[in-house]
C-alpha cells in the first residue's frame, strides 16, 4: 500500500517497537502470542452490477440524499460496494440510512454536554426504521421499502477488502486471511515498526467474546458500523471484531490455524467471520508475562495493544464495546471526531480535557479554550512529557520553547494520539477508594507516579501510543488499571490527548449551574492550574446519582428507555397497546437523603476538599430529586443510576406518531441482557 509516512514533524522518534493502551470493561482473560508471516491475499475482483431502474421505493423520510464521505487515503479505491452489490456512492443507494434534516417546527435539541456545531456534527433525525431498515430491521414485512439483502451470503471482510487498492505489498486483506496473533517467540511480522508510515487508515475494534449471543439489534448495529464507517468512507475505517475466546485451555487457537478458524465458526455469525480476530488470554500471558494480570477489568487494553502490534497498518485504533450505539451515520460522526481531534492544538489539551464542556455555561468551544488560556496566562500545566522514570524515551512532543511562546501552533492540524469520550481525571486527586476503586492499583512503580484516567474504556488511540504501551508492558511489566492505561501513557510520552465534546444528554436534566459545579467545581477561572476539580469525578461515591442519567456513561439507566421509545414509536400503533398500563416491574426507589450535601456542593465556593462529606461511604441511593429534577417516578433503576420517567425524553421528538432520535453516540445499550 502507498504509505505516506512522516507527518510527525514535531515528534521525536522514540525507540522502536510499541506500547499500547486502553480501556474497556467486560469479561475476558488470558494471553500468549506470536506471529505469522503475512500472506498478502490477492484482492478479489469486484463484481459490481450497477443496476439502474430496479430500485425499490426509497424510505419515506428522504429530504436529502446521504452525503458520501470524502476523505480517501491514497491506498484506497475510489469507491466501495455495499452489501446489496451496488456501489455505495450511488446517490440512490439502499445501503445507507436517509435521515430527516428538518422536522416540522421542531428545534434540534441542545445537548447538556458537548455540542453538535462545535464538533461539526450533522444535525439530523431518524426513526428506528430510518436508522436500521438498510441493515435488515423489519425486512420480512410486506411494508419493507428496500430490497432485501442476502445477509447469509454477505461477507463483510470481502466488502471491506474491496475498498483497498490491490497493490502487491498489501498485507491487509481480511477475507480468507490467516491469523496473525502468535505467542512470543513463534515468529513476527518481519516488520520494522519504526519504519511504519502513515496510511490514512483507522481500525475500529469491537470488543466481543466467543460466547456472545448476537441479537438482531447487534447484527443491525455491526452492519451499520461497517457500511457507514468503512464502506461509505471508501475504506478510511476498517471494522474488526476482537473476540475473546472463552475457553480455559484455548491457547491452541494460536498454534493451529485450522482450530483457530473452527473456533471462529462457533463464535461469530457467518457474515462477520472474516472480520473477526480471535484471541485467547494465554496470548496476553505470553507477551505480558511481567504484568502478571490479564483480566479485562484490570487490563482491557492488552488485547488492543496486541492488535495494534500485529495489525500495524492503521494510524489509529478505535476500541468500542458491543453495547455502544451510533443513532445516526457512524462514519460521519467518527470523521467529525477525527477532524476535531486534529484541529485543536497541543497546548492546554490536558487542561481542556479535564473539563466537562457545557455550552450553556462556557459559550463556544473557542470561548471555552480562551477562558482556560486566560486563567493559565498562556502557560500549560503539561508541556511535553510528564516525566516518569519508567518511560525514559518519550515519543511525543518535546517542545524546545516555553509554553508561553507557543501561540497554539504546536500540534494544531495533527491527529490526536488519544481521543477520549469522557473527561480526563488525575488519579492522585481521588481521596477515597469508593470514588475510584482502582485508585491505588499499580505494579512496577509507586503510587506517587502521576496517573490519569478516563472512563469508560472506549477511545481512539494512535498506533505509536499503543506500541509504546505494548513495549513497556512487554519489557518492564508496568501496569495501571484499564481506564488509566491510555491517558497515563499518552501523557508520560507527551502526546496530544483530546476529550471530544460529543453530545451527551442528561434527562431529566437538572440545573446547569449545579451540573457545572459538580462536574467542574466552578467557573473556568476557578482553579489556577486550569484543571477542573469537581465533585462528580473525585467524590463520585456520594455524588454519582446527581450527574445521571445520561446518554453516554459507563453505566446508564437512560439508554434502554431511549431505545424502547425509539422502537415503540416506530411500530404501528394499536389502541390496546397504547393504552395498556405500564406493567413493568421497576426497581425500588429510595428516599433521597442527599439533597443537603448536593446543595452544599452546588452552592459552595469552597474548594472541594473543604466540603465535608457526611455521607456514608457506600454509594448513594437516591431517587434523583435534585432542585431541578422531576417528581419521583413510578419506576426506576438502581437508584444511583437515576430514575427515568416514562415520558419521551425531551431530546427526542414525536411527529405524527413516529418517534425520532437525534444523532448520538450512546452507551450502554444492554441488548445482551434482554430476554
Ligand atoms: C425547514 O423547514 C422550514 C419550513 O418548511 C423551512 O422554512 C426551513 O428553511 C427548513 N430548514 C432547513 C434547514 O431546511
Ligand atoms: C528499522 O528502521 C530504522 C529506521 O529506518 C533503522 O534505524 C533500524 O536499523 C531498522 N531496524 C532493523 C532491525 O532493520
Ligand atoms: C493566551 O494567554 C496569553 C497570556 O495571557 C495571551 O497573551 C494570548 O493572547 C492568549 N491566547 C489566546 C489565543 O487566547
Ligand atoms: C401484568 O403482567 C402480568 C404478567 O405478564 C399479567 O398477568 C397481568 O395481568 C398484568 N397486569 C396488568 C394490569 O396488565
Automatic annotation (TrEMBL):
Biased composition (Polar residues): 618-632
UniProt-annotated stretches for the region Disordered: 570-593, 605-648
One protein family per Pfam: DUF3405
Feature: compositional bias, Basic and acidic residues: 605-617
UniProt keyword Kinase, yes or no: no
Swiss-Prot/TrEMBL keywords: Membrane, Transmembrane, Transmembrane helix
InterPro entries membership: DUF3405
Protein name: Uncharacterized protein
Organism: Extremus antarcticus
